[in-house]
């Protein structure tokens, strides 16, 4: 298969796989696609370890790293000395009533406190300029082929630094206007992400959004949101995209380190079991719908806080839930396509099927058209 | 182009166009597609007039009629003598606080009362078994090729009556489970309708839903929701559909009798200007987002009533708004694809472009695949 994207990045198939798991990233790249490691949960030191592992296991194939540098967030204008200083200042902005709501919710489900292993550094994650930049620095010391950014156009100097190393830059867009702004700062590939996608997402569906983004920019576009099999890959390319960006389908592959309970929940879920919610980070993200997301929509909810305050508010709670028996509160980012994920498979087999089904879908169009 | 659907119905292109306007229906069918008249707003007598007009203007090409027989609605179990009796019984079920909320909303926007031309028969529309059946009887007296039903599987005897006349039956589904139930009652074509569609709609996007429905049933499937140009048509067919069902793109064609203000609003809208709301009928429907839909989501809102009570509550208000200057309250069913409708065009030209762009999209896939 050949598009501007396969030429640009030297890959065999225009299939991009976002995953927080290095094993999945390396397996996708080895199978001819482009694995992209989500750096969000890693400190700079941890990220260094992960990327070193990928370098050793990717057989020289290209791979990418995804960071989150939101264009806007609470505290972006604070004059701070360090990430630790920023965390302290931001903690002071969280209302007591919100902390009480979270505590009451957990108490109502019998979730015990942690046994004293709080990690203040992790409550902010890579959701600010101050925390994401060190991740970018680590990433650019490795032979990555692609640096992707969610939540808006990356800062112009980050784009420049990537280009200076020969690294291409991608950014996620959920409106044609986002896409135009991203190309203005030098982004090489726009990921047009429909509302059905997991994680941070907009309102417009993939079917409607992709052609609008393709018409708005000159750079290649990837279709994201709802891409799970080769028919959806063919659909994405028919819409004008030059590749597809996938995420949720890798949550339940053999190589993924997804917790067992979460994996079982994915295999059982239908496509109606997700919801766009601000309850994770303060910006709308599609999550598994459950009693956690419902609670934040209920009449008792104090409302969510802006990014990054909401995650600072809930990060410890989410860790406590993860270690408890309260599976009914354990949510995570997931797209509507999880309804099509029915068994655990090897990453290589999922890649193979994507390509084979794509070819079948194209041959079907040939027959319909009488070509 | 050839699919099971073009063979079944004797049409040249597997393009279905839902419209409340007879001129659009006839123009689509004459151009080789399948126009489908939405019967909802018509009394049996009015529907007779519309279908007679189509018979005279469709040059013998096949066309269809769409009715609404919801599987469930308030009052479905009432033992009534007549539609008029049903209306009276249902009126008694509308709380006074809801009537006051609507009156206050209109007063706040300076909307005057009607000048005494209330039409009790129209407050119920074709949203019940009692009101839709006479529409079906009228439709089956005309040479229609297709009877479509929204909001659930049609009653088995209606399917039988249609089949006895050689008329095929289609039904809209927003989950694979809906689709299976429809096929069980004898439906010939399932319209898999994604959340981005205008009017009554579910939560799952077209990209995710269509393959799931295709895998769930043996009958041909049409892709609906977000279909506006030939790229989206190619995408729908790549997903496994054997045709596409369109709606919102016909609101602003030359032949449509859409009010001038609504047409201008459509041409100006982006794909973010719609919202799924119960404020029109009591069941979730995608509407133009404005101060009307916002008001029903506000903290002052008493909440919406179940179908058909909500429309009974708001129908006069919507007519009053339509005749007033309060354009900020005038909503109507519209899908996300209205963001791609930028000028008024002839129905025939839209049909021609759909087919031409479809062929271009397929040729693009040929080049990508190296075929």
Q: Which tags fit this structure?
A:
homodimer; 371 residues; TIM Barrel; 2 domains; 8-stranded parallel barrel; 3-stranded antiparallel sheet; globular
Give the secondary structure arrangement, pairings included:
The structure is a homodimer of 371-residue chains.
Chain A lengths: L3 H6 L5 E5 L2 H9 L3 E5 L5 H14 L6 E5 L14 H9 L4 H13 L20 H12 L5 E5 L5 H9 L3 E6 L2 H9 L4 E5 L5 E2 L5 H11 L4 E4 L5 H9 L4 E4 L13 H9 L5 E4 L7 E4 L2 H7 L11 H14 L24 H23 L2
Parallel strand pairs in A: 1-2, 1-9, 2-3, 3-4, 4-5, 5-6, 6-8, 8-9
Antiparallel strand pairs in A: 7-11, 10-11
Span of the ends, CA to CA of chain A: 20 Å
**General shape of chain A:** globular
State the CATH architecture of the largest domain in chain A. Alpha-Beta Barrel
Please trace the helix and strand order of chain A, writing H or E for each element.
HEHEHEHHHEHEHEEHEHEHEEHHH
Taken as a percent bin, the fraction of beta residues of chain A is 5-15%
Total count of strands of chain A = 11
GO molecular function (chains A, B): dioxygenase activity; nitronate monooxygenase activity
InterPro entries (chains A, B): Aldolase_TIM, NMO
Organism (chains A, B): Streptosporangium becharense
Protein name (chains A, B): NAD(P)H-dependent flavin oxidoreductase YrpB (Nitropropane dioxygenase family)
Provide an overview of this structure:
The structure is a homodimer of 371-residue chains. By secondary structure, chain A is an alpha/beta fold. The first copy, chain A, folds into 2 domains: 4-73 and 127-256 and 344-369, TIM Barrel; 83-124 and 259-329, no CATH class. In chain A, 42% of the residues lie in helices and 13% in strands. Chain A is built from 14 helices and 11 strands. In chain A, the strands form 2 sheets. The first copy, chain A, has an 8-stranded parallel beta barrel with strand order 1-2-3-4-5-6-8-9, surrounded by 6 helices. Chain A has a 3-stranded antiparallel sheet with strand order 7-11-10, with no helix packed on it. In chain A, helix 2 links the parallel strand 1 (15-19) and strand 2. In chain A, helix 2 (22-30) runs parallel beside helix 3 (44-57), helix 3 runs parallel beside helix 6 and helix 5 packs parallel to helix 13. The radius of gyration of chain A is 20 Å and the shape is globular. At the A-B interface, helix 9, helix 10 and helix 14 of A face helix 9, helix 10 and helix 14 of B.
């Amino acid at each position: 298969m050949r598009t501007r994207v396969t030429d640009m990045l030297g890959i065999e198939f225009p299939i991009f796989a976002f995953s927080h798991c290095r094993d999945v990233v390396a397996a996708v790249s080895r199978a001819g696609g482009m694995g992209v490691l989500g750096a969000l949960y890693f400190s700079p030191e941890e990220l260094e370890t992960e990327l070193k592992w990928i370098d050793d296991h990717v057989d020289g194939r290209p791979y990418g790293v995804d960071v989150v540098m939101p264009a806007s967030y609470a505290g972006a204008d604070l004059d701070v000395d360090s990430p630790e200083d920023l965390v302290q200042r931001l903690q002071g902005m969280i209302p007591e009533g919100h902390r009480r709501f979270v505590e009451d919710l957990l108490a109502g489900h019998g979730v015990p406190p942690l046994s004293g292993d709080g990690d203040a550094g992790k409550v902010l994650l890579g959701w600010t300029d101050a925390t994401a930049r060190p991740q970018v620095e680590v990433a650019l010391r490795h032979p990555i082929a692609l640096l992707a950014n969610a939540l808006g156009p990356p800062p112009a100097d980050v784009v420049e630094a990537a280009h200076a190393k020969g690294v291409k830059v991608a950014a996620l867009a959920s409106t044609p206007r986002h896409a135009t702004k991203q190309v203005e700062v030098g982004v090489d590939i726009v990921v047009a992400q429909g509302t059905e996608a997991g994680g941070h997402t907009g309102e417009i569906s993939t079917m409607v959004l992709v052609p609008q983004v393709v018409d708005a920019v000159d750079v290649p576009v990837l279709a994201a949101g709802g891409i799970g099999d080769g028919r959806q890959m063919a659909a994405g390319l028919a819409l004008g995209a030059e590749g597809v960006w996938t995420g949720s389908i890798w949550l339940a592959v053999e190589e993924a380190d997804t917790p067992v309970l979460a994996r079982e929940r994915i295999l059982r879920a239908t496509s109606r079991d997700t919801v766009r919610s601000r309850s994770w980070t303060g910006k709308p993200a599609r999550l598994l719908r459950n009693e956690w997301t419902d609670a934040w929509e209920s009449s008792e909810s104090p409302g969510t806080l802006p990014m990054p305050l909401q995650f600072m508010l809930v990060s410890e709670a989410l860790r406590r839930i993860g270690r408890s028996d309260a599976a009914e509160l354990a949510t995570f980012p997931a797209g509507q396509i999880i309804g099509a994920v029915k068994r655990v498979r090897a990453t290589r087999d999922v890649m193979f099927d994507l390509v084979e089904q794509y070819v079948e879908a194209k041959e079907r169009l040939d027959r319909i058209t009488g070509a």
